[in-house]
Specification:
The protein has 210 residues and is an alpha/beta fold. Strands 3-2-1-4-5 form a five-stranded mixed β-sheet. The relative contact order is 0.22.
Length: 210
């Protein structure tokens, strides 16, 4: 049998929806803070089965391919598209209440400004559109959500940030507990923010030719 992803890519409205998201990257509305928000789920806290071998002259450090499984952790992240800084929250669960808690944390860090809009680019996960989240959105009128087309997470810039996190921390780190993993991920985000720069987004929303 054949398997495939039911995507919106070949739908006539895909280009319009993709262009709306790209427009927020390339030409955002005046007085708007654009966030790219998503969750990195079930990140494994991989520990060392045996100690690493330190590097020596002419020899690289060595790590055993086996590892211990020490639980998992989720990371909520919101990238400030036009500065490159990120907000982050670690959580053992990932549901609508965790999302609302994360939105509250972000909201508290952004002082009210007259006429300011906060636009969060998100995918179509059901928790992003739940009744409780929509009720929170109505209670916070300066916020609005912009959703990517179905199965087009590559349009969400925070995925680029997650890739950096995976390559620079998760691939090489070791974590004794889920709490240790959470602490190291949040420390990574804090360090990243000290030198953060925005991504140079070049895709305009036009469907790419073969």
């Amino acid at each position: 049998s054949d398997y495939w992803v039911m995507t919106d890519f070949d739908q006539p409205y895909f280009e319009q929806r993709a262009s709306e998201v790209c427009g927020l990257y390339l030409d955002p509305p005046a007085n708007a803070l654009v966030l790219s928000l998503d969750e990195k789920t079930s990140v494994q806290a991989k520990g060392l089965a045996r100690p690493d071998t330190p590097p020596e002259p002419g020899k690289s450090a060595r790590r055993d391919y086996e590892y211990t499984r020490n639980g998992t952790m989720n990371l909520f992240a919101a990238l400030r598209v036009h500065s490159g800084e990120a907000h982050a929250m670690a959580s053992s669960t990932r549901n609508r209440f965790d999302l609302i808690r994360f939105l509250e944390e972000i909201d508290e860090t952004i002082p009210p400004a007259k006429g300011q809009r906060i636009i969060a680019i998100m995918d179509n996960l059901s928790t992003h559109k739940s009744h409780d989240v929509n009720r929170w959105l109505k209670a916070h009128p300066r916020w609005e959500f912009a959703f990517t087309p179905t199965h087009a997470s590559w349009l969400n810039q925070v995925e680029c940030f997650f890739s950096i996190l995976a390559r620079r921390l998760l691939k090489h780190g070791h974590f004794d507990t889920p709490e240790d993993l959470a602490e190291q991920m949040l420390a990574f985000v804090e360090t990243h923010n000290q030198t953060a720069t925005p991504f140079e987004w070049t895709y305009t929303g036009k469907v790419l030719g073969a």
